[in-house]
Amino acid sequence: MKIYNRYIIITALLLLLTTVILVALGQTSLNVYYITYLAEALAITELFAHLNKRARQGLNLVSAVLLGGFLFIVSIEAIKILA
Amino acid sequence: MIKKNPYTWAGLGLLLTGSLVALFAHLVLGLVWLIALGLCMIILAAILLALGRAVPKLPPEVCGLFLDAGMDNMAAIVEELGIKARAMYLPSSLSNGLPKALIPLHANPALPPLSKALPQRFITRYGSHPDDIGLLFSTIGSRAVALLEAKPDPTPEALEAALTALLAGALDAADGTTVTRLENHLIKVEVTNPRIGSSITRYQECLGGPLASIVASVTAEAWDKPVTIAREEQSEGRYSIELEVTE
Fold this sequence. Notes:
The complex is a heterodimer of chains A (about 80) and B (about 250).
Chain A: H1 2-24, H2 30-47, H3 53-82
Helix pairs in contact in A: 1-2, 2-3
Chain B: H1 6-29, H2 32-54, H3 60-80, E1 88-90, H4 92-95, E2 100-104, E3 123-125, E4 133-137, H5 140-145, H6 156-170, E5 176-181, E6 186-192, H7 202-207, H8 210-223, E7 227-235, E8 238-245
Antiparallel strand pairs in B: 1-2, 1-7, 2-4, 3-4, 5-6, 6-8, 7-8
Helix pairs in contact in B: 1-2
């Protein structure tokens, strides 16, 4: 389980650091936060490609749900522009 | 179904806290950064819940008991029969199914080349000479090979990727591996921060330690040739294994 702990700690640290940096930069759009989190979570999951099959299946599902959220944000923005 | 383990509990806790933080920040405080922090907690909760599903049902201590019991039985057989020869790790194509280890009953410096798969028996004949009889063992490596998604190519790079995926990913038995080709038939594998120890017993002299067994089985499967453990050495945070691929 050591590899799971490392994966979780790296993800948590990176997401928290991103929050601090974006707050310091004065970012006020929630979409920017979400898209940055999504990109980081996907990148870290790719780096831990040698996790076991069951873990990867679960993480692929999480990635799919997060991507669904991203598509939702994009559609809302697109509707706003068109309207 | 949700498995109750520390990952699941931490995931559920973060999910609840994150949702409350995000809702409170959105409805009461109107702070975007706090909503983002709640969102961050929800993402981590989803990852923890996904990992919680992958944690094995059996605790590592119970798995250790199974391993010790199996190794004790194999050690008893090896020691009672007074076997001195080193095991030869065979690929699945030569052992009819899973890769196995062949231990000649008589120390034979020049084993005959194996051209066809050996019969699925514990005591098996591997050559035409009357002394060409050996024991065909299923080892920890035989089972570990089944966890590989695909058979690796016979190159040091592919072997390194497969061993790292197996030892660091699926089995969590080490932090990584490095594979180098010393000579044409000699391959050196270095395992970083191994979490399985090795002791010097007759059984281990014959079959190698658990890590060496896994490495030898995967190598035999990759090269599709019999492999013997030429040398294994454990030092601070490193486990070095030299393998000889039989032509």
